[in-house]
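Please supply some protein, with fold tokens.
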Amino acid sequence: MSDNIATAYRAALVALGQTGPKSLHPVATMLGDGQEDFADGTALLTYLRAAGPEDSLRQQFAHVLAGWDHAETDAKWAGGTIANTAERRHAIITALVLDVPTQDLFADRFPFAAASGPIVIADEWEEWRTEERRYARNFYWSHYRDYLVNKGWNPDAVNGLDLATEEVVRRLSDPTRAMSYQAKGLVVGYVQSGKTANFTGVIAKAVDAGYRLVVVLTGTTNMLRAQTQRRLDLELLGRENLELEISAHDDKAHEYEDDPDWEADKFIRHGGRPSDAGYPDIRRLSTHSWDYRRLRQGFSALEFHRHDRTKDLFDPVNLFTSDARLVVAKKNKTVLQDLVADLGRISDRLGEVPVLIIDDESDQASVNTTSPAKWKNDSKERTAINRLIGQLLGMMPRAQYVGYTATPYANVFVDPSDVEDIFPRDFLVSLPRPLGYMGAEDFHDFDSDVPIDQRSFAESQERRHVRLLGDEQSDDELFTAVDMYVLTGAVKLYRERHGFASYRHHTMLVHEAMGRDSHKESADAITRWWHRADYRGSKGLARLRRLYEKDVLLVSQTTAADHPTPADFEDLAEDVGRAVSLMTPPDRTGSPVIVVNSDPDLEKQQESLDFDRRRVWRILVGGNKLARGFTVEGLTVTYYRRATAQVDTLMQMGRWFGFRPRFRDLVRIYTTEDLHNMFAAACQDENYLRAELRRYAQPVNGQAQITPKQVPPLIAQHRPDLRPAARNKMWNARLVLRSSPGEPMEPVAYPDPKSDRRKTEANNKLWLPVLARAAAGESVQFKPVRSVKSGTGSVPHPLSTTYEAHVAEVPHSEMLTILDGLQWSGADTFKPEVAWLRALRPDQLNRWVVIFPQQSLAKSPQRKIMDHGPFSVFPRQRTMSRGSLRVVSEYRHRNAASRIVGISGSAPDPVADSLHGPATGAMVVYPVLEKHDTQEVGVTLAFHMVTPMSTTPLNGNLIKWQARDSHNPNALVVDASSANA
């Protein structure tokens, strides 16, 4: 009976997946074997109550419901509801006509999850991905989607991937269109966050839609290229496509013959050869072992079959009966020259071939990085990779270019002198943070004002995962990190022994510098320690016990109470021995270290770093080869000392970001305070960018507020040190007005007092009337607030104490004089905001309440500023370029400003509430002094400000742009000499 129920409802869900939700039970009755009537819903209710989480029908329900939750549709069943809302889920349940008990069961078994979708910034495009076309040919996508579900992906995550990939594919050109168009876009993910899954989904949908040549450009290392090739072979091409390459007379001669996943039949299956079912086979022009090579023999591999030779290849009659080709190539000059040369031999037919170019790690090598000093008369020496990608795009008019990156700065700041570059002129898609991802927020206590040694493990991410190193390098600190690696490996084995989880890989990363000599020194030091660490003896076990009891045990008990973790170290002793055995290779050196760099003498050693074919329990020492794109499986402990001044390089070093299922409590990073602060600043910059994109992504009256070509000047307001310094070209888009009603504004690009003393002094003098008023008035007591995590976000939580503050009231006209006169590191900094504030009416904003927080002498020094005060001075750090402060405000002070302007969701504060009034803005001013700076001239008056919602523009437009060259408003860049605005 239960089999009949499952069969009937599975068929019903497949049918409804095409039409949208309808009365469920009658459809199941109709599609069943005709022996049962399911109309009253009792059979399904009984079945689902007994079904466990692994039940296939239960999983199918979760998947289909999540798909309807996410769907962007105007179908009648949706009732005009917005995707990913409780109203949408109610519309679904109503359309399914479920009885109350089944509704309650659905709410319990398949809870609605409001997911934040991708942020899309796009120029106008021609919509061609109708629902009919999506579902008519979805062979590879549907198989990939089912593969992920069967692999254990959360149904919400799979549907989120469907949504995100669709946002990319729909903005490519229609492959069957007669007039060719070349779209260029950028997909921004997070470091180690599953970008490969996204572009695999995009490729699957693109091949289904008719794209017949797919070129995937990976990073610059063989390891990363091979890892990407195998991933696509495993999850997209599948067994049937790969078996096309296996000789019937030599079935052993195959690159995956000794691959455990091939032997275990884990490569995706399509139920037969795709072409036998009327879909394209995918033929490889690169393999797991070999990068793309010149096609000297068998050049027919690049020939595309045309069923009707009187019609073009892109005609549906030919396109859907031809096979697809896949190339996975690293960004290497020789490799790409071979590819360009081969394609050039069929250049007369390339104009008919729909091509998709996926550029993984697109901010590496692809972007033109020639020094601005070499620019002259609009010509320059292009980097080799950039030039070759340009050639590929130039010879294939139907090629679509999609870059993938976690660090978008390089791509959106490509040289404005080079209009042929790979600027994402058509679309920019920012992916949401995926479920289960460990990112910046898991290693930094943003907004916490409590000294780190006073924070508890329960409330502090830094206390859990970060161990700060001294400024001077010490082998003892490195050896402690190695001890932690051994301990965490033992805990994993203990959990395996108790049936909690299986941990195939367990790795540690040591990254101190780029040079090979440094790698060798680190490896030698670890090897020497390994032989005298005495991990099986009393001395070593005593040392591990101390580290376990003061660190591992406390963190795990506090943050992962449901994970098996022994309270007594003695219960872990046997697992320590097993861990050491797994980490020690059976060779003469007995060293657990694998050095990963470009040294050819070490290539054989690096072959053992194959996460697909073998279990890897090793310490990896390396530099750039481990810093970009390559996934270090099972990474648990990181020892990181390498400094860099480049934000994108810094972020790509963060290999500790990623997914750590069932061992995130064991993750540790050993790094210096300076590097940790640099990462915090870089992550905040990244979060700022995403927030800005999300804010302006919403259309107003059907019109986009922002297009990709307007993104560079938007970002430049926050990071003046990243603005390109082109002398003869500039971005055509100029941001002239930016509204932020109810949103905090905190500019950071203050002049450096050490090099721009006059600007700093001039800025401070503008504040003199406000300083005098605040110093002369009575001080007040506000409630400090801390940030407490709640779900995926955080909420303000008032503390029982208070803090003193000087307060001044300032008319809006007077504040405008101050803001208008301030000088910044960047020429355009804060000008669009001031333009907005100047345009406000008195009924929108007429008064400001300015707060100067005060702290006890024990926490903060106090001093007079231009003979007024004393005021508390707050230590802050500047960026490495010294172009701006890293941060200005403290979380605990912001609540008072929010209450004064009437922002909902803030914590009650009687004193702040008494200062609230109509058309009132609030500002928190910090006299900032760099650490160890004792000169008064070093003080910078920095601020955090917020306006009331009454300042919202009547037309809803939050942002206003102007073309520098009004005669050519659609141009991406313009000559500086001809700009007329």
About this structure: The mean pLDDT is 84. The radius of gyration is 30 Å. The longest strand covers residues 920-930. The chain has four domains: 2-109, 119-246+264-306+313-369+380-430, 467-669, 744-952.
